[in-house]
Specification:
There is one protein chain. This protein is an alpha/beta fold. It has two domains: about 60 residues, DNA polymerase, domain 1, CATH 1.10.150.530; about 280 residues, Alpha-Beta Barrel (TIM Barrel), CATH 3.20.20.70. Helix content is about 35%, strand content about 20%. It has eleven helices and 14 strands. Strand 12, helix 9 and strand 13 form a beta-alpha-beta unit. It is elongated, with a radius of gyration of 21 Å.
């Protein structure tokens, strides 16, 4: 098997260059081409001697992913379906904003968390992505935007999968993100979304990174949350919220609580008051999310007036709350939907 350069640290690239009998500065040149100049082949690394490029072709690969399908929404949202080496697929979404695009990145093929409203978990859990496979999504988006004269401003680990359930690869990916010799992107521009794996939240807090944490809350009490999110039975709100408080203390970053509003389930005014009472006094932000309907699931979006009323209640308690702009509805932008559609087509369903 060839060596995947995206999987290597700068020290490991330097070791590879040494094994190839090349001077040490060639490692810096390779890293620059790969991480900063957007090279997608060794042939593009024009300041490397031909002999080195040939050696790299024989022994290494850059590790980019094949694009299987693309969709673009009327609002500019783009979804890309990538093929992995083992035949599995994974999705990435580009979200357009005036200040620069944001990329929504996947960390697993499928998901084992079983959230009742989520498309990405419908096929079940297949496997974890490697750190290189996670980064390959980012570099594809970054290079695509650079060719358009645009910039990748932010990144959210909110695609398919639970990032903290793929701990080792997610941490290795974040190390590459903040490494000046690799992506060189501040973790202040990165948001990691979790369904609430309390021990991993605490472990992440200990790193003290300025990483934004988004917690999928989606309910004001354990009864509703356990119905929607099985993980709540193991880590109920009495454990989850204090872990989030600890994250704030250790990192100095406020926690965002994600709240999908489902008609008749968690969107009543009484639910808003109950949620506000739990979060009052905490350093947090509530992101209210209009539900993207998913074929095959029973849930329906809350009416717009209920979403607005819910937000008003939270603000009346002094809680910072916003309503997420709905994007990509015409291309089934909810995580996992393009992958599910393509899978069903291949099966002839």
């Amino acid at each position: 098997m060839k060596i995947n350069l995206l999987a290597l640290t700068p020290a490991e690239v330097a070791a590879l260059v040494e094994r190839l009998g090349e001077p040490a500065y060639r490692a810096t040149q390779i890293l620059d081409w790969l991480w900063h100049k957007g090279a997608v082949s060794f042939a593009q690394m024009s300041n490397l001697p031909m002999s080195l490029r040939q050696k790299l072709e024989q022994q290494a690969e850059i590790g980019f992913l094949e694009v299987l399908a693309k969709q673009k929404s009327v609002d500019g949202t783009e979804k890309i379906l990538f093929a992995l080496a083992d035949g599995q697929t994974v999705e990435t979404v580009i979200l357009p904003y005036d200040i620069g695009e944001s990329a929504c990145i996947s960390t697993q093929v499928g998901c084992r968390m079983g959230c009742a409203f989520c498309a990405s978990g419908q096929p079940g859990f297949i496997r974890n992505l490697t750190a290189a496979e996670i980064m390959a999504q980012v570099l594809y988006v970054r290079n695509l935007l650079q060719r358009r004269g645009r910039k990748l401003k932010n990144m959210v680990l909110m695609g398919t999968g639970e990032p903290l359930d793929n701990w080792d690869a997610t941490i290795a990916f974040l190390e590459a993100v903040k490494d000046p010799q690799r992506l060189a992107m501040s973790l202040r521009h990165i948001t990691l979304s979790t369904c609430g794996l309390v021990p991993k939240i605490l472990a992440l807090a200990e790193k003290g990174w300025p990483l934004n944490l988004a917690v999928s809350l989606h309910a004001p009490n354990n009864k509703i949350r356990s119905r929607l999110m099985p993980i709540n039975k193991k880590y109920p709100l009495e454990k989850l919220l204090p872990a989030c408080d600890q994250y704030v203390t250790k990192t100095g970053r406020r926690v965002t609580y994600e709240y999908i509003l489902l008609a008749g389930i968690n969107d009543e005014i009484r639910h808003a008051h109950e949620l506000a009472q739990k979060l009052s006094g905490r350093i947090c932000h509530v992101n209210l999310i209009p539900f993207n309907a998913v074929p095959g699931l029973q849930w329906q979006p809350s009416p717009k007036e209920k979403v607005v009323a819910f937000c008003h209640v939270l603000k009346s308690y002094g809680i910072n709350a916003t309503i997420r702009r709905k994007m990509g509805a015409d291309i089934a932008a909810a995580c996992g939907q393009l992958r599910n559609i393509c899978r069903d087509r291949m099966r002839g369903e």
